[in-house]
Q: What sequence folds into this?
């Protein structure tokens, strides 16, 4: 109203339109559905009424009186006398009759059925596959077996003078386990129907599991210092574990908590290498040495390994022993380990020197008489000069970044200038 | 090759000299087959036997008789490191030659396990060793690069002096069967370690000797082999000495480093106390 005043429009014309519109709208408003929904279908009544509006919102038949009551009930399928409660729909005061609606799903054996089963068992000599085929109502082989064995057991128990007499009977001692049997057969059929790919994958996982258990057992054995029995039990129990369960879990049969990693990883690696060598029925000494060298160098980087080899050459030792007997290989391995320790200690010393120098420089500056460095300072490349006593100290610039060493002597470079001897020496 | 068991037997015989030795009964005690098999197959742990071998080739330049495709005559072989007969362990050897040779798979059924051929080219030969079944049913393969031409290329080629390339190795059997151990315990080609104390092996009569061993006419050792004059010497002692010397050097240097480190640690400690005070 105010807007019209503002706009200066005449009041009468608009009010006239407004009056006519509500009349039209109320004429159009459909019955039973909202206006918007009606508008979706075109906004006009259909030529042929599709659904009677009266059908859409049905009320319950007015002649019935429905109430709900909280009542107890029993289940005929249960052996115990469990009384539970639930809501029951009462029609005109009459509660429903009949058994609990879900009881019919319990597989019931009637006397008739059982008699039929026993008859078939006798005529077909307990061949359950045949019996299952001929059984009138559809029952699985496991169900039939279960019924037969439980009835037979009950009869045996009833006829026996005392329970002790029958305790040795297989029917009593090893009762038929339906669920286990069903599961076993299912797993078996799964295994049989595996594709080649799945078979391969399973074999891989089992092999991995075996390796893991072996190495764990060896680790445990190395700690307890008694070598374990190699696992024939391992793969078998792993297989048994695999069949009943869908997923193969390699750690399932490793019951013992994996002991904390052995203090020195070197011992564990070596022990596992020895164990794996023992698994082979035959192997070459050079192969064994190779494996152990790899294990010993596993913790070191490529550069360190190269330095070890360089040191060996400086010492005049063949990288691969020429006469690799058991004793020689053992000595060779020990030498390599000692060289590794040597290199690590050298590095340690360098760090300490660096610490010391920064410390000294920071607090006191250079005091006269303090040796600037105590070892072969900038000489990073060579420890043992061939044909030379290493005891001679080297004095050179203490610059750890410099690669070219300050050499004291004109000592000939190893290997390059030495005349090449027979190749056999290099083996 | 420890002959501890045989010395034991000698001792026993000496003790029993007072009684006349009864002749061995012709009818042996009959054991059931299963227990026999069990004895034969019983594996011994912690008793690793090893056989030191040398494998490689000897090659002669044919000199005037050399043709383009047959310039050298060579022999590739596997022998015992001390030239003893390794036929006690190895049943047969298969040499796989380059495919350009006719029938490149050559099988040698009895020792000495060698193969001679003529050719011009160097290539890798796969040497597969098959052991007696009671020892090991898995074969082992070695690889050897055939060497025809000498290292020193500038020197003159001699048809009298061959080019030799040999390689030493040891075949290890970590868990030999009892039966096998009994068979080889005193054999010179096999290294048998000292048996654990209190351990005695059953008498050899219980074990059947493989047929071939008993009836082989050709000698299997290579002590007097025509090529034996060219065989190389592999001395364990030399290498052990070399390694011991190297270890000594390293250990001395290690000790020195450790001293230096502890000295520096001491100095740092001193400096620290000075600066703290």
A:
């Amino acid at each position: 109203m105010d807007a019209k005043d503002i706009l200066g429009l005449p009041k009468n014309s608009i009010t006239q339109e407004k009056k006519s519109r509500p009349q039209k709208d109320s004429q159009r408003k459909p019955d039973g559905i909202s206006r918007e929904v009606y508008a979706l279908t075109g906004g006009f009544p259909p030529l042929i009424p599709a659904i009677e509006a009266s059908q859409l919102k049905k009320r319950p038949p007015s002649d019935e009186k429905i109430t709900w009551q909280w009542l107890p009930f029993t289940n005929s399928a249960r052996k115990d006398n469990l009384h539970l409660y639930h809501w029951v729909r009462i029609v005109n005061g009459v509660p429903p009759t009949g058994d609990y609606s879900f009881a019919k799903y319990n597989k019931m054996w009637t006397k008739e059925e059982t008699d039929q089963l026993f008859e078939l068992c006798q005529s077909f000599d307990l061949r359950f596959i045949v019996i299952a085929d001929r059984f009138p109502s559809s029952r699985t082989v496991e169900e039939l077996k279960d019924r037969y064995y439980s009835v037979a057991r009950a009869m045996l128990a009833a006829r026996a003078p005392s329970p002790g007499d029958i305790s040795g009977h297989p029917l009593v001692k090893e009762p038929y386990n339906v669920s286990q049997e069903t599961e076993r057969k299912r797993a078996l059929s799964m295994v049989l129907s595996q594709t080649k790919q799945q078979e391969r994958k399973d074999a891989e996982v089992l092999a991995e599991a075996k390796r893991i258990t072996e190495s764990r057992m060896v680790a445990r054995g190395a700690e307890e210092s008694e070598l374990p029995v190699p696992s024939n039990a391992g793969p078998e129990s792993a297989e048994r574990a695999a069949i009943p369960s869908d997923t193969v879990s390699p750690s399932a049969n490793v019951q013992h908590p994996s002991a904390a990693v052995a203090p020195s990883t070197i011992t564990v690696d070596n022990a596992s290498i020895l164990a794996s060598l023992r698994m082979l029925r035959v192997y070459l000494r050079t192969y064994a040495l190779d494996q152990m060298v790899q294990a010993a160098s596993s913790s070191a980087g490529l550069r360190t390994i190269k330095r070890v080899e360089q040191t060996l050459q400086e010492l005049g030792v063949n990288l691969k022993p020429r006469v690799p007997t058991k004793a020689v290989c053992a000595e060779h391995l020990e030498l390599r380990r000692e060289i590794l320790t040597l290199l690590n200690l050298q590095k340690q010393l360098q760090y300490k020197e660096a610490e010391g120098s920064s410390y000294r420089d920071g607090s006191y500056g250079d005091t006269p008489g303090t040796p600037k460095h105590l070892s072969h300072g900038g000489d990073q490349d060579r420890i043992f000069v061939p044909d030379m006593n290493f005891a001679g100290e080297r004095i050179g610039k203490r610059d750890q970044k410099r690669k070219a060493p300050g050499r004291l002597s004109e000592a000939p470079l190893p290997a390059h200038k030495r005349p090449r001897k027979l190749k056999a020496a290099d083996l | 090759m420890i002959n501890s068991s045989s010395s034991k037997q000698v001792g026993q015989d000496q003790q029993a000299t007072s009684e006349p030795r009864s002749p061995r009964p012709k009818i042996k005690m009959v054991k059931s087959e299963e227990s026999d098999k069990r004895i034969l197959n019983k594996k011994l742990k912690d008793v690793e036997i090893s056989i030191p071998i040398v494998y490689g080739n000897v090659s002669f330049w044919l000199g005037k008789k050399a043709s383009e495709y047959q310039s050298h005559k060579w022999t590739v072989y596997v022998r015992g490191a001390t030239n003893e007969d390794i036929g006690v362990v190895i049943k047969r050897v298969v040499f796989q030659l380059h495919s350009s040779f006719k029938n490149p798979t050559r099988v040698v059924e009895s020792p000495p396990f060698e193969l001679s051929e003529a050719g011009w080219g160097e290539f890798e030969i796969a040497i597969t060793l098959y052991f007696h079944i009671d020892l090991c049913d898995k074969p082992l393969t070695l690889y050897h690069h055939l060497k025809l031409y000498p290292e020193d290329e500038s020197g003159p080629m001699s048809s009298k002096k061959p080019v030799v390339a040999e390689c030493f190795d040891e075949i290890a059997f970590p868990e030999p069967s009892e039966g096998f151990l009994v068979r080889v315990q005193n054999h010179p080609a096999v290294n048998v370690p000292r048996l654990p104390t209190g351990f005695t092996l059953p008498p050899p009569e219980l074990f059947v000797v493989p047929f071939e061993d008993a009836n082989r006419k050709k000698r299997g050792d290579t002590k007097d082999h025509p090529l034996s004059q060219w065989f190389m010497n592999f001395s364990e002692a030399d290498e052990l000495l070399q390694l011991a010397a190297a270890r000594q050097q390293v250990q001395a240097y290690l000790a020195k480093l450790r001293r230096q480190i502890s000295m520096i640690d001491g100095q740092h400690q001193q400096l620290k106390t000075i600066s703290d005070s």
Remarks:
- Strands of chain A lie at 66-73, 84-91, 283-284.
- The CA atoms of residues 222 and 267 of chain A lie 8 Å apart.
